Amino acid sequence: MNFPGKRRNGYLGAESGAPMARAPPEGPARMRALAAALPAGLLEGFRAGREIAPPALDRNTPVFAVGMGGSGIAADLVRGIVAGETPVSFDLVRSPELPRSVDRRARVVLVSYSGNTWETLRAYEAATRAAATRFVITSGGELAERATRDGVPILSVPPGMPPRCAVGPLIGGLLGLLDSAFPESNDDRIERIAERTGRLIRSYSSARGPAAALATALGDRLPFVYAESSFLGLARRWKTQIEENAKRIAVFDEVPELLHNALVGWDASPRGDAKRTAVLLLEWAGGSATIEQSFRYLERLLRARGATVRSVTLPSDDRLEAIVGGIALGDHTSLFLADRRGVDPYPVVALSRIKAAVRDRRAASR
Description:
- The chain is an alpha/beta fold.
- It contains 14 helices and eleven strands.
- Helix content is 50%, strand content 14%.
- A five-stranded parallel beta sheet has the order 4-3-5-6-7, sandwiched between helices.
- The longest helix has 23 residues, at 319-341.
C-alpha cells in the first residue's frame, strides 16, 4: 500500500501528486489487499512516528498507550517488544479511566483509528487533567480535532479501512515514537522486516500455503490460540481476527500461566468435547527451553484428550520480526477461514450496531 504525500506533523498527506492505486471493492479482495499492505504500513508508520518522537526515553519515563479493539491491539503487540528490549515501563490501558499513577512525568499515547472512540476521548481529557505529555495516533475524527486545538503532536494514519487493518501503520507509529528507548534505532531493522514479511505474505496468501493449510486443519472446530507471555498480544490478534474476519468465536491464553488453571479443564474434558476443538501453539524460536518444554507437555495432553493440535513456529528469532510475520500468518489464516465458511470478512455489523447504540445513549444524556 502506498501512502503518498507530504508529511505534516507526522501525517502522510496527499499533496505530492503521486497516483493513488484504485482500491478493490469491499469484501474478500479488499481484505486481502489490506493484509498484503502490512509491511508498507509498518515502514511508513515507523518513519512518521520518528518525526514526532519525544526526547530520549528512560526507565524514569512511564509510557501509557490507550486504545480499544483494533486500535488497542497495536499497543498490545508492541508491549512485548518494549518489555523485552528496553528499560521503559510501557502499559496498555483498555479503559476510559487512566491509572492514578499517570502524572506530569508520563507520556500518554492515545490511539483511536477513527478518532471517535469514546473511551479514548475520555482518556484524552484525563491525560490533560493529569498534565501528562500526550501524543495522538488517529486517522481523524474528534480526537484529531482536540489534539489540533491543544497543540498535541498527531501521527495521522491513512483513513478508509477497518481499524483492524491499520495494524501496520499503528505498530510502526508506536515503535517510531518509542525508538529512543531502544539500545539502537530500529530503522534498519524495520526495513529488513518489511522486506522479509513481504516475501512471506506471497506464501501466506497462496491457496496451497501454510495459512490455507492451518484453516483446513481448524475446520469447524472451536479454535484456541496459545502463546508464551511476551507474545500474548499476538495470540489475542489471531483470536480477534478469527472473530471479526471469519465471524467465529475463538479463545486465547498464555503459557506458562495456563498450566496453572486451564490445564485442569483440558485434563477433565470428555474426549468428545475436546475433539470439537483445535489448538494453535504459537511458538517462538528465541524462547527458553523451559517454555518449549511447557509447550510439549501441553501438546501431549491435548492430543491425548483428542484435540486437534498444530504447532506454529513463528518465522524468526528476532522478536519483532516474529510478531510481524505472525500477524501476517494469522490474518491470512482468518481470511481462509472466512472463505471456508462463505462469509465476507470485511463488514462487522455487530460492532456497528453497538457503536450506534453508544452514540445514541451519549447523545440522549447530554
